[in-house]
Amino acid sequence: MITVLRIGHRPERDKRITTHVALTARAFGANEVLVDTPDRELEVNFESTCQRWGGDVKLRTGVNWRQALKEFKGQIVHLTMYGETLDKAMVQIKPFGDIMIVVGAEKVPREVYERASINVGVGNQPHSEVAALGVFLHTLFDGKMPDYDDGQMKILPNPRGKTVESK
Ligand code: SAM
Questions:
Q1: What is the pLDDT of residue 157?
Q2: How many whole angstroms from 16 Cα to the centroid of ligand 1?
Q3: DSSP SS3 for 58
Q4: Which of 10, 35, 150, 154 would be 61's cystine partner, CB 3.0–4.6 Å?
Q5: CB atoms < 10 A from the CB of 148, how many?
């Protein structure tokens, strides 16, 4: 079970980027997305994506991040440009059991660095929570991505155009 915890979400400023965090989590194989600030619109839009394109991925907002970190029993991986290199971190992260991946928005509270089982940098340059999450999940799953079959629509790969199957 892979949970992505997105902290510092500001609905008025981060709608698009938090949506992209959630879509990336889903597309790259996470099972659940938790967002700290309540945002009903985000929940509704994400549920609609899952209905159309498949995947039983849950998104909840208004989650108390401190409590979520305290109660989580598996490994907590905090993605930050200050963290351990991805190569070294992957040796330490167990490829079984539950993992919670934490991504921030602006400044992340010190407590998150301390609660994390490991702080991981996807490179040690500033970039984006979306990029960091995608690369981390892609590495964790050795490049395998889920192929959702339970949606109303499915894309059939086409090198020269768009083919979409409706069910
Ligand atoms: N100073 C922040 C930091 O600690 O990474 C950069 C803020 S960045 C706009 C928002 C989020 O993107 C961060 O909280 C972190 O989760 C993620 N992020 C940015 N660059 C990263 C990197 N090189 N490695 C891992 N995560 C990164």
A1: 96
A2: 17
A3: strand
A4: 35
A5: 15
Q: Ligand 1 centre and the CA of 128: distance in Å?
A: 6
Ligand 1 neighbours (beta carbon < 6 A):
79-82, 103-105, 108, 121-123, 125-129, 132
Q: Give the span between the Cα atoms of 76 and 115, in whole angstroms.
A: 8
Mutate to test the pocket of ligand 1, among 81, 88, 110 (most ligand atoms within 8 A of CB): 81
Domains of the chain with CATH codes: 2-166 (3.40.1280.10)
> Which residue's CA is the nearest one to ligand 1's atom 27?
80
* The pLDDT value given to residue 94: 78
Query: From the CA of 76, how far away is ligand 1's center (Å)?
Result: 16
Identify the pLDDT of residue 151. Answer: 95
Q: What contacts 103, CB < 8 A, 6 or more positions away?
A: 4, 5, 6, 7, 21, 79, 129, 132, 133
Which residues, at least 6 apart from 32, have a Cβ–Cβ distance to it below 8 Å? 1, 2, 3, 4, 57, 58, 59, 60
**pLDDT at position 96 over 80:** no
Structure confidence by residue, pLDDT tens digits, 29-56: 999 999 999 999 999 999 999 999 999 9
57 backbone dihedrals φ, ψ, rounded to 5° = -110, 130
